[in-house]
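Support request from a user on the community tier.

User writes: "When I paste my C-alpha cells into the form, the page sometimes reloads and wipes my input. The last time it worked, I copied everything first. Here is what I submitted, just in case something in the input itself triggers the reload:"
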C-alpha cells in the first residue's frame, strides 16, 4: 500500500512538472495568437478606412464637385475677410473689396459676399453705412444652440439657417457643417444637404463622436435622395472603418426607417 501511494505521488509530481514546463509555452502561444489577431484587425480596419475614404470621394465630394468648388471659394473669402476685419475693423473694407474682385467675376456675387462681411463686422460699402449700433453680436455657440432648439421644435429651415450662420463664422468646423446638413436633410433639401455633408467629410474630424454622426447622416441623406443601396453600403463600410459605430447605428431608428435596415440583426 505504501508503495502504491509512493507511485501515485511520483505520477502527480511528474504531471505537475509537465504542466509547469509547458505553461510558459502555452502563455507564449496565447500572446502570439492575440498579437496576430490584433495585427489582422488593425490591417482590416485600415483597409476599411481606405475604402471609406474612396466612397467619400465617389459618393459625395465628386458628385457635388461644382457646388463644393463654389462653396469652398465662399469659405476662403469669408475666412480671409473676417481675419482682416478682426485686425483692422472698418479700415479693412478696401482690402475686402480687393479680395472680392479677385474671387468673383459677377458684380452681384461680390455685393452679396461683401454684405455678409459687413453685417458681421460693422463695415460700410461704397454708398451705404451699415448701422449695427442696435444689433447684438452673437457667438458661434449662440447659433449652434439656436439651431438645436429649432431642430427640437421641428423648424428645420430655421435650424439650417442658424447652423449656416455658424459655419460662416468658422468655416472649417466639420461638426457645424454636419449639423447644417442634417437640418437641410430634415427640411427635404437633399441637394443642399449633400453639399453640406460633402464639405463636412472633406474637412474631417478627429473627434470619434463627430465622425460617427457624419457617417450616419451621410447614409441618411443618400437613402433619402433615393440612393438606398449606396446608403446601406456606405453605413456598412463606415461600421467596418469606425470603432463602435454599430452601437449608435442600432439605436438610430430614423436611419433604419429611411434606409430600410433591420436594426435588430
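"...and here is what came back when it finally went through:"
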Amino acid at each position: 500500500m505504501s508503495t502504491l501511494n509512493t507511485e501515485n505521488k511520483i505520477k502527480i509530481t511528474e504531471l505537475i512538472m509537465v504542466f509547469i514546463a509547458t505553461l510558459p509555452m502555452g502563455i507564449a502561444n496565447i500572446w502570439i495568437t492575440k498579437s496576430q489577431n490584433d495585427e489582422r484587425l488593425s490591417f482590416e480596419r485600415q483597409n476599411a478606412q481606405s475604402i471609406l475614404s474612396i466612397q467619400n470621394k465617389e459618393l459625395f465630394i465628386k458628385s457635388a464637385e461644382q457646388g463644393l468648388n463654389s462653396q469652398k471659394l465662399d469659405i476662403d473669402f469669408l475666412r480671409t475677410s473676417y481675419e482682416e476685419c478682426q485686425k483692422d475693423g472698418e479700415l479693412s473694407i478696401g482690402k475686402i473689396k480687393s479680395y472680392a474682385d479677385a474671387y468673383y467675376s459677377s458684380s452681384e456675387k461680390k455685393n452679396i459676399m461683401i454684405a455678409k462681411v459687413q453685417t458681421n463686422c460693422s463695415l460700410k460699402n461704397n454708398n451705404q453705412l451699415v448701422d449695427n449700433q442696435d444689433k447684438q453680436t452673437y457667438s458661434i455657440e449662440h447659433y449652434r444652440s439656436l439651431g438645436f432648439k429649432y431642430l427640437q421644435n421641428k423648424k428645420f429651415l430655421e435650424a439650417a439657417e442658424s447652423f449656416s450662420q455658424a459655419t460662416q463664422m468658422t468655416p472649417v468646423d466639420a461638426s457645424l457643417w454636419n449639423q447644417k446638413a442634417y437640418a437641410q436633410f430634415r427640411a427635404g433639401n437633399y441637394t443642399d444637404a449633400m453639399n453640406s455633408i460633402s464639405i463636412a467629410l472633406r474637412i474631417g474630424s478627429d473627434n470619434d463622436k463627430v465622425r460617427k454622426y457624419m457617417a450616419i447622416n451621410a447614409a441618411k441623406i443618400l437613402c433619402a435622395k433615393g440612393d438606398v443601396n449606396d446608403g446601406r453600403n456606405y453605413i456598412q463600410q463606415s461600421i467596418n472603418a469606425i470603432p463602435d459605430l454599430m452601437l449608435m447605428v442600432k439605436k438610430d431608428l430614423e436611419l433604419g426607417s429611411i434606409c430600410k435596415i433591420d436594426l435588430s440583426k
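Agent notes: The reload is a front-end session timeout and is unrelated to the input. Confidence is low (pLDDT under 50) at residues 123-135. Residues 65-121 form one domain. Escalated to web team.
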